[in-house]
Amino acid sequence: MHHVVSATTNPAKIRAILHAFNEIFGEGSCHIESVSVDSGVPEQPFGSQETRAGARNRVENARKLRPDADFWVAIEAGIDEGSTFSWVVIESPEMQGEARSATLPLPEIILQKVRAGEALGPVMSHHTGIDEIGRKEGAIGVFTAGKLTRESVYHQAVILALSPFHNAVYR
């Protein structure tokens, strides 16, 4: 059984990681341990570079905390060019995979508050009345009328980031 350390305690992110690992390596083949680690970037990262750095930092910090795991996984959400997205970084002792998620354009009323220094999750919670929305369907669920969720978009990006771990062409 693979020991997978999730560098987050966010339930939507953990579900996406578990679902993707089960699809790639087989149902029940992984045990997910979630840890809370620092990203080294602001709570609301801006730009692809800062967001990717946050995910890489989380993986590095998770590795230090749980060095004997088989995989370390981080999902860092950010804002780039008026859209929300995330970077997924996955490492094993031998290799690394990274993927950027799909992006969701945000309405100007939300972006104004985020640009003023508020994080997207609390802004969306205030706007929708959904407590801790970032741990649930997220802005993606709200603005796609539930057709996509934070978890479903993260799941796709985790699948993409896992490609080097099971496809021999990468080696």
TrEMBL record:
Catalysis performed (reactions): ITP + H2O = IDP + phosphate + H(+); XTP + H2O = XDP + phosphate + H(+)
Cofactor: record remark: Binds 1 divalent metal cation per subunit; can use either Mg(2+) or Mn(2+).
Binding-site list for substrate:
T8, T9, N10, P11, A12, K13, D68, A69
Q: Does the keyword Calcium apply?
A: no
Query: What NCBIfam families does UniProt report for this protein, alphabetically?
Result: inosine/xanthosine triphosphatase, PRK05074.1
Q: Write one Pfam family the protein is assigned to.
A: NTPase_I-T
Identify the enzyme class. hydrolase
**Taxonomic lineage of the native organism:** Bacteria, Pseudomonadati, Pseudomonadota, Gammaproteobacteria, Enterobacterales
Keywords annotated in UniProt:
Hydrolase, Magnesium, Manganese, Metal-binding, Nucleotide metabolism, Nucleotide-binding
GO MF annotation terms? ITPase activity; metal ion binding; nucleotide binding
Q: Which residues form the Non-canonical purine NTP phosphatase/PRRC1 domain?
A: 7-165
Recorded hits in SUPFAM superfamilies, A to Z, give:
ITPase-like (SSF52972)
The record's listing under Gene3D superfamilies reads:
3.90.950.10
Q: Which family does it belong to?
A: Belongs to the YjjX NTPase family.
Alphabetical GO biological process terms: nucleotide metabolic process; thiamine metabolic process
Q: What's the name of the protein? A: Inosine/xanthosine triphosphatase
Cofactor(s) essential for the protein? Mg(2+); Mn(2+)
What is the protein's known function? Answer: Phosphatase that hydrolyzes non-canonical purine nucleotides such as XTP and ITP to their respective diphosphate derivatives. Probably excludes non-canonical purines from DNA/RNA precursor pool, thus preventing their incorporation into DNA/RNA and avoiding chromosomal lesions.
Give the record's subunit note.
Answer: Homodimer.
